[in-house]
Request: fold
Amino acid sequence: MDLNKEIEVKKSFKAHKIALYWLLALIYLSIIGLQLGRIQAIADFNYSLHEIMYLPFNITIFVGPPLFLLYIFLLVHYLRKSERKKTSFKTVVQSILIVSSVVFVFVITGHQFQEVSTGGVFKVEQKLYEDRKYYVVIDDKKVRVSHNEFQLVEESQQYLISFIWNKRTPDRGRLNTIEPLD
Reply:
């Protein structure tokens, strides 16, 4: 009877470990896909490739929560079968890694989904230098620019501008492109 229980414990451990690896792989592939999908050079090179970069994240949205619940179920099942009074350090670290990875994905995607790209003809209202960083004020938004861009633009002039800003911080942004009007 002891041998059967030991085999069940090993199977339970193996099942929970497989669920763990699938969950971590899915989470990290979705993070990598999201970050690669944001690279404009990939979109310029091949837009289909750019769209495929988001596939792991889209799969994670639907498969991740049930897989997470399955992992928790298998972990609890394993802990019950093994009759351990205390979990091992390795199991605690793995669980923390999973939970922190899930939280990390939600925080990053929540922030990135609030980003807005704005483009058009804008007047540079003001140039600012604060905390060793360069900014131009456009449409009441403090947009971060490089040193070269800061030196080239002139206040009260209109430019063709594209910049990204976040809805959570609507008064700040970062410059994508700026071109003088002819």
Residues 68 and 101 are 11 Å apart (CA to CA). The domain at 115-180 is CATH 2.40.50.140 (OB fold (Dihydrolipoamide Acetyltransferase, E2P)). The chain has two domains: 2-112, 115-180. The two ends are 87 Å apart (CA to CA).
